[in-house]
Amino acid sequence: MEAPLYPDVPPTSSTPLGGPPAFWVGPRHLAGDDGRLYDVVADTLAGLGWTSLTIVRGRHEPDEAPEDRQVLRSTVLHISPDTLCWAQWVLADEPFHLGEVPVAWQISARAEASSPLAQWSAYFTTDVPGEAVTDFLFALDASDQPAVPLTGPELVLDTVAAHGWLPDSDRPQAAATDPTFTSHLRLGEVPPLIQDADPQTLVVEADEAGPAGWQAWAEPMLGAPFLWAASFAASCPPQLVAAFMASLSSTAPVLRRVLPEATRDRLLRAPAI
């Protein structure tokens, strides 16, 4: 088990006016999303020039004062300038779950602007570190062919191996784990509801395995609830998955004010002064 960099400094000490203290923490894959996953990703998309479409929903009861009206603003889509890619914040509506953790962002891409269907989609639950999602988006935005694989799946495993992750002893060519055996990466059958334009996903029988896609997740303790999960459709280009995993497995610390309860005792931390 890892210990705090400064064990004598409690997490709530030196609290600045206006909020909890900030800490530099690691490892990144256990640091959570700081409660800011929407803001971090939405700000990145705005900086990349993606257009956001927002709907306003509300409910007005009879004899209700205007200031008491219930209004919900839900950002439905962020669309790339070439319209080939889009990102949807689904947590405000009716998200499905990965490993019993609600999906927060769904990111999709298509091969041609004339196609109404996504070629692939990727899904990120709450507590996925925002840095990893934004690095995935930077790689996606930089590609002029976001639906085309430019490399093989070995790039994904090579990327995490460079950061000290260990190959799975049973499936070294398709799975890896971090040195604490808390976070995992696997190439295999994707969960239900993962959208993919590969025709094989439409004809696979119930007792057959469909096309393999990448899955990643953090399980703080064996059998405990997942901290986060991410799922990539089988057609998601490996270079994009590698960009996500390179950021997720990075040894560089990240700034956090909110530490996940499930992993706070495993995090190295130093006050950000």
Tell me what the structure shows.
With 273 residues, this protein is an alpha+beta fold. It is 17% helix and 28% strand. It contains 5 helices and 14 strands. It has helices at residues 37-47, 130-142, 154-161, 200-203, 238-248, and strands at residues 23-26, 51-59, 70-79, 85-89, 97-98, 101-109, 120-125, 166-167, 175-177, 183-189, 212-218, 228-232, 254-256, 268-271. The strands form 2 sheets. Strands 2, 3, 4, 5, 6, 7, 8, 9, 10, 11 and 12 form an 11-stranded antiparallel beta sheet that branches. Strands 13-1-14 form a 3-stranded antiparallel beta sheet, with no helix packed on it. A hairpin with a 5-residue loop joins strand 3 and strand 4 (85-89). Helix 1 packs parallel to helix 2 (130-142) and helix 2 (130-142) packs antiparallel against helix 5 (238-248). The radius of gyration is 20 Å and the shape is globular. The protein starts with 22 loop residues before the first strand and ends with a strand. Residues 1-17 have low confidence and may be disordered.
Structure at a glance:
The chain has helices spanning 37-47, 130-142, 154-161, 200-203, 238-248; strands at residues 23-26, 51-59, 70-79, 85-89, 97-98, 101-109, 120-125, 166-167, 175-177, 183-189, 212-218, 228-232, 254-256, 268-271.
